[in-house]
Amino acid sequence: MPVAIRLADWNTDRDAIRSIRQAVFVQEQQVPADLEWDDQEETSQHFLVYRKTIPVATGRLTQGGKIGRMAVQKSSRGLGIGAQLLQAICEQAQKQNFQRVHLHAQQHAQGFYLQAGFEVEGNVFNEAGIPHIKMVRSLI
């Protein structure tokens, strides 16, 4: 599936980013809106994925090397878009000289991240009422 992935800016691209995350996290997964939006938005490097001219996925990389808020619109799942987005985020992290990145994976998505070279670190915990597991990946 040909897609375009680009770096996004919170202030410029906020509407597209919010629209995707609102649909995936707040509406589908019932994450409380006050937990979805945090103080990392303006300082994180955001990403947008487009199919043709439509934004269908997003993710971010915090200044601390945490990958998060990865979301793919329901109509675009199963096409490899999440894997392409994750790879683009890891490549950007390498450009920013991170030696490793980490994330809090929803437990059901653990296999997806294992396939992308991440390893489990620690035990399952709840975040926004959803079971998560910390995962890490070396970039060197």
- Our measurement of the CA-to-CA distance between the termini, rounded to an integer number of angstroms, reads 29 Å
Unreliable segments (pLDDT under 50, ≥5 consecutive)?
none
**Coarse structural class:** alpha+beta
In CATH, the architecture is 3-Layer(aba) Sandwich
* Gyration radius, rounded: 14 Å
CATH class: Alpha Beta
Order of helices and strands: EHHEEEHEHEEE
How many E strands? 8
* Strand proportion: 25-35%
CATH topology: Aminopeptidase
Largest sheet: 8 strands, mixed
Write down the oligomeric state: single chain
What's the number of structural domains? 1
Brief characterization of the structure:
With 140 residues, this protein is α+β, with helices and mostly antiparallel strands. The chain contains 4 helices and 8 strands; from the N terminus they run E-H-H-E-E-E-H-E-H-E-E-E. The model has no long low-confidence stretch (mean pLDDT 96).
